[in-house]
Design goal:
Layout (H helix, E strand, L loop, with lengths): L1 H20 L12 H15 L5 E2 H8 L3 H14 L2 E5 L7 E5 L1 H25 L1 H20 L7
Antiparallel strand pairs: 1-3, 2-3
Organism: Paenibacillus oenotherae
Pfam families: MarR (PF01047)
Protein name: MarR family transcriptional regulator
Length: 153
């Protein structure tokens, strides 16, 4: 039984590794790199939560990346016309961000493309397998959120 479990664990690890190495997450959408899209979605999400003022540190915390990384992405997004920066009225040292109408359009189009792809996956798997897949993914996320990192064991 141990060898059988070990074999299945190896197959699972290989399948997950292949999935994570796939380039689907690296594809441009709407002419925008995935890292830029994540920042655009983050700005929109923060604004939709009632925050009218979004800072680089807000984005950095939400995406778990460094502020210099976010700053470089923001510069590219401003240059592309997707993000507008402005000074905080209360603290001139603080730069705040918001999506432009072009940025909002890119987010909307990217979301539509993403939902189209997910709809294609549902069509491929069927409703029953799709629901089972969702349940399994939730169990996987729960499992990995509960286990300790290997260096803590």
């Amino acid at each position: 039984m141990v060898n059988e479990t070990s074999s299945i664990a190896k197959e699972m690890a290989e399948a997950m590794e292949m999935f994570f190495k796939m380039d689907w997450r690296k594809r441009r959408a709407c002419g925008t790199r995935p890292s830029e899209l994540r920042v655009l979605f983050c700005i929109q999400s923060l604004c939709n939560q009632g925050r009218h003022e979004v800072s680089i540190s807000d984005i950095s915390k939400r995406l778990c990346v460094t502020s210099p990384t976010v700053t470089q992405l923001i510069k590219q997004l401003i240059k592309a016309g997707y993000v507008q920066s402005y000074d905080d009225a209360n603290d001139k040292r603080m730069t705040l961000l918001r999506l432009t109408s072009s940025g909002e359009a890119v987010v909307k189009q990217a979301l539509e493309q993403h939902l189209l792809h997910m709809g294609g996956l549902v069509d491929r798997l069927g409703e029953e397998q799709s629901e089972a897949f969702i349940a399994l993914l939730r169990q996987v996320m729960l499992y990995f959120s509960e286990i300790k990192p290997l260096d803590e064991e």
